[in-house]
Amino acid sequence: MELKxxxxxxxxxxxxxxxxxxxxxxxxxxxxxETKVAGSAPLGTGLEARGVHAWFDKHHALADVSLDFSAxxxxxxxxxxxxxxxxxxxTLNRMHEFIPNTSMAGQVLLDGKDIYEPGIDVTKxxxxxxxxxxxxxxxxSMTIGENVLSGLKxxxxxxxxxxxxxxxxxxxxxxxxxxKDRLGAxxxxxxxxxxQRLCIARALAVKPKVLLMDEPCSxxxxxxxxxxxETISQLSKSMTIVIVTHNMQQAARVxxxxxxxxxxxxxxxxxxxxxxxxxxxxxxDERTENYVTGRFG
Amino acid sequence: xxxDAPAKPIPQAREITTKPRVSDQIFRSIVTAFSxxxxxxxxxIALFLFIQGFSTLKEQGLGFITNFEWSVxxxxxxxxxxxxxxxxxxxxxxxxxxxxxxxAVPLAVLTALFLTFYAPERVKKVLVTVVDLMAAFPSILYGxxxxxxxxxxxxxxAELLHKWLGWIPLFDVPQPIFTRSPFIAGLVLAVxxxxxxxxxxxxxxxxxxxxxxxxxxxxGATKWGVIKAVVxxxxxxxxxxxxxLGLGRAFGETVAVYFVLNIVFRTNFEILFTQGGNVASxxxxxxxxxxxxxxxxxxxxxxxxxLLTLIVNFIANAVVNRTVKSGR
Lengths: 297, 328
Prior knowledge:
- The complex is a heterodimer.
- Chain A is of the alpha/beta class.
- Chain A has a single domain, classed as P-loop containing nucleotide triphosphate hydrolases (Rossmann fold), CATH 3.40.50.
- Helix content of chain A is 38%, strand content 22%.
- Chain A has helices at residues 2-10, 13-19, 25-35, 85-91, 122-128, 144-154, 162-172, 176-179, 192-204, 222-235, 248-254, 276-281, 286-292; strands spanning 47-56, 59-69, 74-78, 102-110, 113-114, 129-132, 210-214, 240-244, 257-262, 269-275.
- Chain A has a six-stranded mixed beta sheet, with helices on both faces. Chain A has a four-stranded antiparallel beta sheet with strand order 2-1-4-5, with helices on one face.
- In chain A, α10 (222-235) links the parallel β7 and β8.
- The longest helix of chain A is centred in the last third of the chain and has 14 residues, at 222-235.
- Chain A starts with a helix and ends in a 5-residue tail after the last helix.
- Chain B is mostly helical.
- Chain B has two domains: 24-83, no CATH class; 88-327, MetI-like (MetI-like fold), CATH 1.10.3720.
- In chain B, 71% of the residues lie in helices and 3% in strands.
- Chain B is built from eleven helices and two strands.
- Chain B has helices at residues 22-60, 63-66, 87-118, 121-136, 139-165, 182-206, 210-218, 223-252, 255-260, 279-287, 292-327; strands spanning 70-74, 80-84.
- In chain B, strands 1-2 form a two-stranded antiparallel ribbon.
- Classes of the chains: A alpha/beta, B mainly alpha.
- Chain A binds chain B through residues 93, 95, 98, 123-127, 130-131, 133, 135, 137-142, 150-151, 153-156, 186, 199, 202-203, 206, and chain B through 209, 211-222, 225-226, 229-230, 233-234, 326-328.
């Protein structure tokens, strides 16, 4: 009930899709494809993974994934638990290496440059490839405003008009109206969904080209999920987004492309990638079809 | 539910009880007994000190804390005149302990940060063992080391401090004698309390929530940036707690201070000068040749030290509780 009233109020493209109560995933994806010209940006200007493998200690978790995320598109990574999709997304901004004894092979290219190249400044890479995590993780010792601008401080970036940027980021993350009167309050007082949008605003403040989202809605209620999805749709006009999700409805609602990952007991592999409406309406691989039709997973 | 339905009576709240098994009850009573025994022993010690020192406390009143004379003389009639005042010793205890904290806390926090975030696994193991060993090292050895090895060097540092910062009253001296000063006692105490502060800090730093650390890294933070923005705010109360444990140890330290401090019953804030006070060391110093009256006074001193430590810990708890709210 709450969902409906919210979408009606907002009247964005989301409401068009939801008002018809789509019967299947492929319908949802088709609607999405109609409203947005998928992949309008030229290929190869965004982020590109080439033959990426990942290991935890000696456990081979991910094998030979090549994916192209062209600028201005939303790509959803779907698949059952343990298929390596979270591992994969974490190789894209070099968060994978924070877990001790991990390794990777292959290349990740940002604007044609390998981010794993020796001598590269990894903090600069992470400024260009932002990340939103599964669990909202604002800095509890900082206020809402400080949280949004914390990336600037951490990366020692100078910005002439901080207040403008603060408002812009919160507006883009869809949080401005809810917090504009209490920017000085501690972030811990926000609801889970608000905290997650605060984390998105925080990621936006350093102006990344790519935003990685690792199951950003899995800890949230449906209402908050919807707000985040609206935010993603808004953001996708200006940046490249990669989102890991367990929720196929969500993949169908927000993404232009979908990649299906699967592990057959061995390392996780990418089985199939394509425009989202094709993946959900006529997948080429039988395993993809079994998964998207809910026969397993 | 229709409106005309008869109202259901609201039942009485039920009393919910659980009857534990016999084995559970036995274990429970053992655990309870042992945990209270610590409290009882502590209370008995305080009571013992109070009884022994009661006559002194009664005689000297508040002057026992505010005066700084310490003498037992006999007048012509053969009557004992006792004057006991702890002011110099109490202030001396705090001066040396705070010097120790001032030096030890930054060193310990940096050590803990290194051990948690920078040290390679092998180096970390060795260093943690060494630091923990430092805590178990007998304090008399610290005293001897302080007297014979540290002091000659520390005197030189004290001279430098006096030369360049002598215009600050704290670093002034009435005469250029720099041995056995509160400064040197503070240095020895600092070395002694570094291990405890380090290991408590290390524990809390290691508990920093990984998601916050990753959030900072994902925003393009450097390692130092992560430490400043996430680790230190999270660990602040742990550092305060560890420091208070260290302060407690510094307050009560006896033998090591006895070796490196010239105990004089005069309140002295000139920390480089060879004159200082420390309640615990004073008790050792006086105990050997004390008569009955003076022993009572020494017991009372012990009680005062006990209370001082209690108060400091109480304040520390309050500080920690306040930082918990803002830090986590």
